[in-house]
Amino acid sequence: MADERTSRVAELLSKTESAHGTYESEELGGERDEQWARWYAEHLVQGKLPDVLGSAPSAEQVAAVLTEATDDLESEGSDADWSEFAAARVVERLG
User: Fold this and answer.
1) Could you give the CA distance from residue 70 to residue 26 in angstroms, rounded to a whole number?
2) What is the DSSP letter of 46?
3) 54: alpha, beta or left? (left if phi > 0; alpha if psi -120 to 50)
4) CA–CA separation, 95 vs 25, rounded Å?
5) Alpha-carbon distance 18 to 4, whole Å?
6) Are 65 and 93 in contact, with CB atoms under 8 Å apart?
7) Cα dihedral 84, 88, 34, 26 sign
8) Is the pLDDT assigned to residue 20 strictly greater than 50?
9) In terms of Cα–Cα distance, which of 43, 48, 56, 52 is closest to 16?
10) Quick one: how far is CA 49 from the chain centroid?
């Protein structure tokens, strides 16, 4: 079972994913945002992520961890939930 911080980060990631979908639809005309990790990171760092982690990572650090987690999840061929997988990595590396 995930600890409380991991669960809270997963929730933040899910909300960020939803907000990013709106951004792609409305601002990018439905195009895929190739810089998605940077967008997520800035959104998270300007939001509640520092409070949840108890530290203030930079957007660059968060983007790197999200990109790495995504690449690892894809290379593993896992069917794990992305937000939970990435949240665990964020807490492990930045929390």
Assistant:
1) 24
2) H
3) left
4) 32
5) 21
6) yes
7) positive
8) yes
9) 43
10) 10
Alpha helix segments (H runs only) across 1-95: 4-27, 36-46, 49-53, 59-76, 82-94
Length of the chain: 95
3-state helix, strand, coil in the chain (%, to 5): 75, 0, 25
């790495």: which residue's tokens? 68
Structure pTM?
0.92
Decide if 39 contacts 23 (C-beta within 8 A): yes
Going by pLDDT thresholds of 50, 70 and 90, the confidence category of residue 2 is low
CA distance 37 to 20: 10
DSSP-derived secondary structure letter, 77: T
Q: How confident is the model at residue 78 (pLDDT cuts 50, 70, 90)?
A: confident
